[in-house]
Amino acid sequence: MMPCRFRDVAIVAIMGSFILPAHADDHAEHPLSFMFGEWVGPASGFSQQGPFSLTQTERVGPMLDGDVVVIEGRGYADSGDTVFNAFAVVSPTGADGTWEMRSYTQGRAGTFPFEVTEDGYIWSTPAGPNARMVYTASFNGDTWHQIGVYTPSAGPERQTFEMTLTRTGDSDWPAGDPVSPDLD
Question: Does the reported pTM lie above 0.70?
């Protein structure tokens, strides 16, 4: 009889082969490969403290042979200080092609539906008892454009966030140093 730990690992490995997508030998075949790399650009919006603008950076790359995609976003003030930092893991939830994102920022965490669209993605998070924040991203070549819209169950929607980033190159993410906020 196999030792318990080895047996459990073997069972998980066998079961995983049925529920995880096939690995792409080339990450260019990954459904989220359009996001991979380092990105820098302006972001602006409105928070509870008022309007803000900053330089946003993102680094995105695959891990675990593409089973998950990791994302780190940092917002920099004009002084160069980091004023925003977020981390997320995007992964498929099953054979039906659905995705989820587990996000961490400012002492909060949550798991949210992540919908891959023809040119990007959409994800949303609760924003109070009767509202959601809906984030819609589109990618066109080396440009990543994303907006955040406060969407109450009653009343008008209002855009509260926008960023337009330029892909500056490949990333060695998840290893390596953070993306510099400098466009040079």
Answer: yes
